[in-house]
Design brief:
503 residues, alpha/beta, seven-stranded mixed sheet, 20 strands
Length: 503
């Protein structure tokens, strides 16, 4: 008899907590787990040891189903990646844990991971537009501001997200899949033109779009995130109109319970490491899938190194940027094939470091947004006990793609030189520690999925349907959540699908 959803979710609480007994590979990049034999079999093979794959594996293992997890990298965690070897130990990928992230919070409790408030609040942000500086407080009335009417009150770094938000009719986090909202499955540029926005608003929206630009991403997909964000904020009694930094909120601490945004003490990568430790020798690192054969009664996954794994069911818990490099026989058809081949991914590249000496005695706000090479410079408030401010340079879309063309040391040199050019007071006062761009990671290829205009309508629903013995997980297959919670949501969904077949 198949295991019920209620049984398996209740049973997850009984998983052994092995944090004190982690194998070295679970926390150390470059080391490998149990080396597989030339051919192995299991009830379920999962491709990808990010949060989605690990969540599915934990649930299936708790149900008594034999599972093997194949991970192409030498580390687990996917886009949950703490750069513990860099100064200030920045998070390269997923890091924000909201109050409504029920699955993440429950796993942190089970694995005794301590949640701490995220310390990533920005100091005030100026704008450098067409070669001229404008402080945040002066933007609405500045002659540099060429927008019109009530557009003028929106800071340049927020034009894309805030103007789009005015036309977001979604009420619930799954409304984006309702055909009634198909008119929103359009690029941001078209949406703003439809509502009569000024040429300058269109220009700044293109530079500050949440996706790669104002043409390549579906507003409907991004509105789902806005709607889910409102739900998360209600858990913290936060008014969303008061956000003080791009792509997030000022991290409210009301003295009770969790902060609005949280991290894991010691780094968010500790969560997938703990999940992998609980799975023990079910994990195979350094195993890059090359082919998935679905022609027989059993599925066979063959890896680049020649090893093979036979299973009743296979879960693909990797981005479509990776799945499209795997030979699938037979190939999916129709809208699902289009999704695998063409679902887009957004680019984000970040540089990290320490402000060795404050440079804002030039009368300009410490953080800044520019329309040039360096998109955003985030000067961060000091953490308790810190002697210096930290900083992040955040580049998205075209800005990230431009800098990713160069080797890391060359990219950092260009960023440092550009900051010194536009902000001479900062010269010699920044200590860079590293740079990282997700589109340069071969097994991932982007920081997150991004539906192109029209894609939600064409394949948003159907792309997650099982194909023969193959199931699809990963944050790109979410229905209601976002971020780390979306990855866990998808792992839970596919585990339940599989249990109905092999339980």
């Amino acid at each position: 008899m198949p295991t019920s959803r209620r049984q398996i979710l209740a049973g997850l609480a009984g998983l052994p907590l092995l944090l004190g007994k982690q194998p070295a590979w679970a926390g150390a990049p470059g080391q490998s787990g149990k080396q597989s034999l030339a051919s192995e079999s299991a009830s379920v093979v999962i491709i990808g040891a990010g949060l989605a794959g690990l969540q599915a594996a934990l649930l299936l293992k708790q149900a008594g189903i034999k599972v093997i997890v194949l991970e192409g990298a030498k580390r687990v965690g996917g886009r949950v990646y703490t750069a513990s070897w860099l100064e200030n130990a920045p998070e390269f990928g997923a890091s924000q844990i909201g109050r409504s992230y029920a699955r993440v919070l429950d796993l942190c409790r089970q694995f005794n991971l301590k949640l701490i408030p995220e310390d990533r609040n920005l100091l005030t942000m100026a704008s450098h537009i067409r070669g001229q500086w404008v402080n945040a407080a002066d933007w609405a009335g500045s002659p540099v501001n060429r927008m019109v009417g009530d557009e003028r009150a929106v800071q340049p770094a927020l034009v894309g997200s805030q103007l789009m938000g005015r036309y977001n009719r979604l009420e619930g986090p799954t409304d984006w899949l309702d055909p009634a909202f198909a008119d929103l499955d359009v690029p941001l540029n078209e949406l703003l033109r439809r509502h009569g926005h000024s040429p300058e608003a269109l220009n700044l929206a293109n530079l500050s779009a949440t996706g790669n630009d104002a043409l390549s991403a579906s507003c409907l997909s991004m509105m789902q995130e806005q709607t889910r964000g409102r739900l998360d904020a209600r858990f913290g009694n936060v008014e969303l109109g008061k956000e003080q930094r791009p792509y997030g909120f000022d991290n409210i601490r009301d003295g009770t319970g969790l902060a609005l945004i949280n991290n894991i003490e010691g780094g968010c990568e500790r969560l997938p490491q703990a999940m992998a430790a609980a799975l023990g020798d079910s994990i195979r690192t350094g195993k890059t899938a090359a082919a998935i054969d679905l022609t027989g009664t059993k599925a066979v996954v063959t890896c680049i190194d020649g090893s093979s794994f036979t299973a009743d069911r296979v879960i693909s818990a990797i981005p479509f940027t990776s799945l499209r490099r795997i030979a699938i026989d037979p190939l999916p058809q129709g809208a699902q094939a289009e999704a695998i081949s063409f679902l887009g991914y957004a680019h984000t590249t970040r540089a990290f470091g320490t402000i060795v000496e404050p440079f804002w005695d030039d009368g300009i706000d410490p953080s800044f947004y520019t329309d040039g090479l360096v998109k955003m410079f985030w000067a961060l408030q000091k953490r308790p006990g810190d002697s210096h401010h930290r900083f992040m340079v955040v580049m998205t879309g075209a800005a990230a793609s431009r800098i990713d063309q160069f080797a890391p040391d060359e990219g950092l040199a260009m960023i440092e030189a550009e900051i010194a050019r536009v902000r001479p007071s900062a010269k010699g006062k920044l200590r860079f520690s590293g740079i990282f761009g997700w589109q340069n990671v071969g097994l991932i290829g982007g920081c997150r999925h991004m539906f192109a205009p029209g894609q939600v309508t064409r394949f948003g629903k159907t792309m997650i349907e099982p194909f023969r013995q193959l199931h699809f997980a990963g944050e790109h297959t979410r229905r209601a959540d976002f971020g780390m919670e979306a990855a866990l949501e998808s792992g839970e969904r596919t585990a339940i699908e599989v249990m109905d077949q092999v339980g």
